[in-house]
Design brief:
Blueprint: H1 2-22, H2 27-38, H3 56-61, H4 63-71, H5 95-106, E1 156-158, E2 165-167, E3 169-170, E4 183-188, H6 192-199, E5 219-223, E6 230-231, E7 238-240, E8 245-247
Antiparallel strand pairs: 1-8, 2-7, 3-6, 4-5, 4-8
Helix pairs in contact: 2-5, 4-5
Length: 248
């Protein structure tokens, strides 16, 4: 009986240790998928994120910063309250995902078996919606001073439509997305935006000089780094009025 008790104790101890080792999260099997799904849209070369989070080396070298950001729920950025209402494409980590990242960092940020790392996200150079029916280019390049201060301009783009059209999708593709904080898209059917643009010698016009102006029309789209293009469900869309100007 005494020997049996000792053997049981040994087996229990070994089983506990093995279970503890199996529960330690690693990058390849646990963390990479979370990062790729929620972070690399902004944290990759050429985007607004201050550092890249593509490779294991990228992520592990910023592990403590990531831990602090996700545990405090500052990242990924999502101002809406997910406890009140859920939205399509919301960027919110589950508590289980936050706990995994926290445990991974506390365990020393192990990589695990690199052959099990999921494929890195494929970010297309062209349109995410395919070949567009219409392209509305910027009238001319917008140059900023690069002083790390917000620089607001209202850019006015003619549609030259001769009839109302319904659109199913819209996409914004800035040449330098790392410099663009956000963009809101309206349509103006009054011609007021064009008049303000003509009075301003710069590209577009300064909204601070026209504080009482607001687009007479509905909002088309809003964009910030990491956002996907907008494609409405089949049978739904937005109307783009003839002779309207898109105001960005």
């Amino acid at each position: 009986m005494k020997n049996f008790t000792i053997c049981c104790a040994l087996f229990t101890c070994v089983s506990f240790i093995q279970s503890g080792l199996a529960q330690t999260p690693n990058f390849s099997e646990d963390i990479a998928a979370i990062i790729y799904e929620n972070c690399t849209g902004c944290h990759r070369p050429g985007e607004i994120g201050p550092f890249s989070l593509i490779t294991y080396e990228d992520v592990s070298s910023n592990a403590f910063a990531i831990q602090a950001a996700v545990v405090s729920k500052k990242m990924p950025p999502w101002p809406a309250n997910p406890d009140y209402r859920h939205y399509t494409d919301e960027l919110v980590l589950e508590q289980s995902e936050i706990d995994l990242i926290d445990q991974w960092v506390m365990a020393g940020s192990p990589e695990g078996d690199s052959t099990l790392t999921p494929p890195q996200p494929d970010y297309p150079d062209g349109s995410q919606l395919g070949v567009p029916d219409s392209i509305y280019p910027w009238p001319e390049p917008l140059v900023t001073s690069g002083n790390n201060q917000n620089y607001y301009r209202e850019i006015v783009i003619p549609t030259n439509l001769t009839e109302d059209r319904y659109i199913r999708g819209i996409e914004f593709r800035p040449d330098q997305s790392g410099y663009v904080h956000h963009a809101d898209f309206f349509q103006d059917t009054t011609g007021t935006a064009k008049e303000l643009d003509d009075l301003d010698p710069g590209v577009g016009f300064n909204p601070d000089t026209a504080p009482f102006w607001y687009p007479q029309g509905d909002m088309l789209f809003n964009w910030s780094p990491g956002m996907k293009s907008q494609l409405w469900p089949k049978g739904m869309g937005k109307i783009l009025y003839k002779n309207a100007h898109i105001v960005v």
